[in-house]
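Section: Multi-chain targets

For targets with more than one molecule, the full set of components is provided together so that the structure can be written out for the assembly as a whole rather than chain by chain. Components appear in the order listed by the source. The example entry contains four components.
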Amino acid sequence: MSDAEQTRQNILTVAADEIHQHGFKATSLSVILNRCEISKGALYYHFTSKIELGYAVFEEVYTPMFLNVWHTPLTVDDPIEGLCDFLTAMTEEMSCSEVVCGCPLNNLCEEMANVDEGFRLRILCMQEQLNQLIVDALERVSGDLRDNLAFSQVGYFIVATLNGATSLSKSSRNKLLFQQVIAELCLYIRALKK
Amino acid sequence: MSDAEQTRQNILTVAADEIHQHGFKATSLSVILNRCEISKGALYYHFTSKIELGYAVFEEVYTPMFLNVWHTPLTVDDPIEGLCDFLTAMTEEMSCSEVVCGCPLNNLCEEMANVDEGFRLRILCMQEQLNQLIVDALERVSGDLRDNLAFSQVGYFIVATLNGATSLSKSSRNKLLFQQVIAELCLYIRALKK
DNA sequence: ATAATAACCAACCGCTCGGTATGTTGCAAG
DNA sequence: CTTGCAACATACCGAGCGGTTGGTTATTAT
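Its structure, encoded as tokens over all components, is:
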């Protein structure tokens, strides 16, 4: 990787972390510059504006991360158990910072979806991809599932509940409420089976 | 009501609307002053700081509003149906601004819970009160419900899913995803019955 | 009549923000 | 040897922010 590309990647990584911790608007470019030990000129050489940097973080850091994380548990033999194991593992492995900072995608959705169309469309696209992953997995084992299930609806329900659960962990500052909601979610997911 | 109290209430009402629309941090005091047609001195006579104004909005506007809204459907004869009717009516009556702006409590939780302890504790208290309302209602009709239900867990699950659903409506800018998640949530809630 | 207080107003302050304009350096092509 | 561009660095700008300061007015108590 060239020096320039290295610089760019470094900016993206640091910016992704800052946005995750403080949200997009509260993220200060000067903090990113300090952490990267570069000047403002360098940043504006690679990105035309703060919001374009935000878009790049979304597309080049968050999106691949999410698709990768969700792909694994949904492509195992039994995606119902895969999903439950995945969610349960999440409650256990969740770091303190993740309890406090929440999910990057959900955070950006809450903060930016209603003020910036660029973010909104990217978030929507990501949510649809995530939902499609779940729908595909459910359809693959539809023979084992209850009849009359609306797969897309189920998918969005799961994602919505997970987001709501991270929200609860933010205010309680511990995993307990999160774990309870996930436990109930797993009961719901397992009840999808015949 | 005295003139001073009238002024104070006016500030609270306008601030509640601004915070709902733009979040706490992005809410500008000068906008509130313009809308109220008062000076900055007037605002700082009634409130010692921006964050104290935020706390007052939470306690004197959002909290009573929430407790009132949730109390009705949970104290009818059949709280299961009351809840489902309440949620379904919400999807229908939801105004355009509510689709875009989301739930004030959830918004503040996402934005402020991890940066300000004062907000965090107030939000947590509110969520616990909300959960208690649900738990009380479920316990009241526990004879009609499945055995081995963890009422508190169920309560937080419902609240979490509702919050996640409003989040989805923000990015999609329509009610469809919200309605789907609520429909699935009602299926879950009705399945609590024996 | 006067003193005090409640309820405001107008002007200003320091600070941080995103963004820009200009200057510098190293390397590579001709 | 020098020209040119990529890849930065430095210094500065205007705007908006929350908050403070020093009045002003009207009402009330003495």
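Chain B touches chain A through 46 residues (CB under 8 Å).
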